[in-house]
Each structure stands twice: as structure tokens, then as C-alpha cells.
Amino acid sequence: MSDILFDRSRTVTDWRCPRARYWGYEYDGKGIVKGTTNLALHTGIVVHDCLAAIATQHPDVDIDTIAQTAALAMKKSLLEASEGEVGADEFANEQAALTEGMIRGFYLHVWPLLLAQYPIIRHIEKEVTYKYEGLTFMSKPDLILETESGEQVYIEYKTTSSKKEEWINSWDTAVQLHSAVKACEQTLGHAPEAVQIVGLYKGYRSYNKQNSPFCYAYMKKGNPPFTEDVIQYEWKAGLKRYPTWELEGGVKNWVEGMPESVLAGLFPMTPPIFINNDLVEAFFKQRAIREKEIAVYEPENKLFTLDRVFPQKWDSCSPGWGHGCEFKKLCHGRADDPLKNGFTYRRAHHELEAEQFSEEGG
What we know:
- The protein is α+β, with helices and mostly antiparallel strands.
- The chain is built from 14 helices and 15 strands.
- Strands 3-6-7-8-14 form a 5-stranded mixed beta sheet.
- The longest helix is centred in the first third of the chain and has 30 residues.
- The radius of gyration is 23 Å and the shape is globular.
- The model has no long low-confidence stretch (mean pLDDT 92).
């Protein structure tokens, strides 16, 4: 019997709601996803791909091509999904500017800071695994950097709508993330000494606008030749919001002129987080129990075992903060066949599960 496969996303989904874990990863042996990707996830995927491209191209990074391609792809996908809704063009331009701004801002501010401390790029999105009691934990660290003395750090990127101290502190016990260090050690023969989270702050939606300096400048039109335009990165009385994509030189010039103090506030970073091995060991022990329980689920006895192995957490269906569950209509009986109601089979995100799908004819 092959090892039971699991990863961070399965674990987090199971913690949020076991029934969502069933739909997303176990249904029909594959799991299902909505046919359309929500904006936050789509933005995260696009940005992660661009940050990987920056590391891959280093030191000859074509940041203009990377950033502009991402912005155009974001705009195109949002316009196609909008089906001609009123205001869709402005929203698509806004989110494209946000995406381009985060990528350019990262390259200007974060990338030099990381390389100054860790000048050696060791691994970029390298597949790693950790075997434990018949389980295989799969991980793909965003980036592993190294000092000249051989110390390594695992860098994880997170697009975020929060940069509060609580967000920074939350990663100290994000054990499912720290567990990737064990996988690095077992696969690569070297465990990173620490994990560091790099946040890319998106801001938030307010009055139907994205509250981010990547999207909007603040301007007061001048009256030449007597007065010139006043344009700033932060709001002040008398200034009105103005789209950055309509400025001379567009988002590129706007970000390149952004003060370091403003840029620093848009990329919250944790200090290096050192691994608590006792915490990680407890994580794997507990996951072994849970994943083996999931592995014996039998759909033939669906009414009983589905409720026992994958109980529902009703407060996750429509939470007061954040996104509602994508599987809500399945759990609440408004769809009999997921594949005929806007869902498709999940694609494998790790090499081992892709091989498993292939062996099973998926």
C-alpha cells in the first residue's frame, strides 16, 4: 500500500471544516473545486508565479515584462469573468494596478533586503516530502536562500489584507508551515535554520475601491501657470483619489517614485522564526491519527461515515468576516451532482499526487 499523501492546504481545510476537506480533496477520490477561482486566490497565484520568476531570472531580471504581463493577465481574466457588468473595466484596471504594484514594489524594496542578508538562491519552489508513519507530507517552499556561511532560511510569500501585529505574530505557531522544514531536511539533506514570512499587503475594499497606494494616488489639480498639480501617496485634506494607471508613466513610474517609508509599510515581514521541534512532532503525530481516519472512509456507508469522519462546521458556511465556503450549496442540498453545478475535479498541485492520479486513471 502506498503512503497516504497530505499537505498544508489539506490540513488547513480540515481544520476549518472537515466537510470542506471531503469535498475539496476526497470526493470521488480526487476532490473538486469551483469552476471559477475567487479573486484573492487568483491574485495570490499570479503574484507567486511572478516572484518565482524574479528569483529564477536573477541577476538579469526583466521586471517590466514580468510586471506588465501579470497586470495584463489579471485585467483580461477579470474582464472575461465580468461578462460586461457595469464598472467591470474600472475594477479590472484597479486589480491589475494592484498586482503590478505589488510585484514592482517587492522587487524594489524586499528583494534587495533579502539578497543582502541571504545572497545565495538555493531552491525555488522545490518539491520536498517528509515520510512519517505511513504518511507522506508534501510541500513546495516558495524560496530557500542561504548566507555565505551556509545558513539557510525558508521564505514564504503571503498576499494579505492585514498587516497588524496579530498577523505578524500568528506565524509563530503556524506549525503546518514550519513542518516544511522537516521535508526540506529529509529531501534535500539540509534543514533551513528558520522560516521568514514576507507579506504583500493588498489593502482592503472601501466604498467599492481598493484602498491601496498601488491603485490610487491623491491629487489636487493645479491651475497653470499659477499653480502646479499636487500629487501624494497618502490622503490629505483637499486631495482627491486618482487612478495610478492613468498617471503619466502609469504604475511603473508611480511605484519607482514611492518613498521607502511607504513601500516598507506595504510589505510586512516577520523576523526569522526558529523551529519548535516539539511542536512539529506533535503536529505529525496528530495528523497521522487524522489522515489514517480519513483514509478508511467508505462511501458505501455514506450517511454514517460522512457525518462521522467529515462532520460539518456550520459557522464556516457564511462567516461574518472573510470568504464564505465554496461548497455551501453542496452541503445545504442545493446541488445533487457537483460536476453539473459549476464544480470540476481538482488538479494535483504536487508531483506525487499527480503520479497517483495518473496511476488511478484520473
